[in-house]
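[job 0412] stage=fold_complex status=start
inputs:
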Amino acid sequence: GDSVTQMEGPVTLSEEAFLTINCTYTATGYPSLFWYVQYPGEGLQLLLKATKADDKGSNKGFEATYRKETTSFHLEKGSVQVSDSAVYFCALTAQDTSGSRLTFGEGTQLTVNP
Amino acid sequence: GAGVSQSPSNKVTEKGKDVELRCDPISGHTALYWYRQSLGQGLEFLIYFQGNSAPDKSGLPSDRFSAERTGGSVSTLTIQRTQQEDSAVYLCASSLQVINNEQFFGPGTRLTVL
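[job 0412] stage=fold_complex status=done
writing structure:
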């Protein structure tokens, strides 16, 4: 079945540091890939997405590129801020008979210190 | 406009009792999803609706779990004879259509089974 594997956390960085959270996936066909973010006390929000190979999703300074050859969708940000502290989830949807159900990774807790 | 809402926000119940969790999707969204977020299992898909039909119930963990959707809008997730392992945050999401549409998440219902 489909699965998503994320870099284990928690991750603690200083403000303005470079961030990478690794994500790899297993799926048949051509899944769409997502990063969701959950800020403390809030619901899940879509951060960015990519729907085909070599697409780059970007939002709020975060980027991720859909790499079919390595089945990866790593999340990066050049300079993190304290306000980026949250839990980040990599996810995919596979266009099969299961509609667009999301399959999530385990989540990575990010803490950014001033 | 209004987002996805869920009620109650918190529910504490005793083992063996039945509970009902409610989800109000964004108006006009035809697809509705239920997920569960728990410490041991991460984020898991439970069921999705297209209109009032549930094409995929494969994520429901047991026959104690059921869900319905009426009028293409409100959905209720019912857990009968609750067990302690049912304790989790139950998340609802909706999207405009089933395929290739962003899912918007509600704040969740935190269920605690004593």
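[job 0412] summary: The mean pLDDT of chain B is 93.
[job 0412] exit 0
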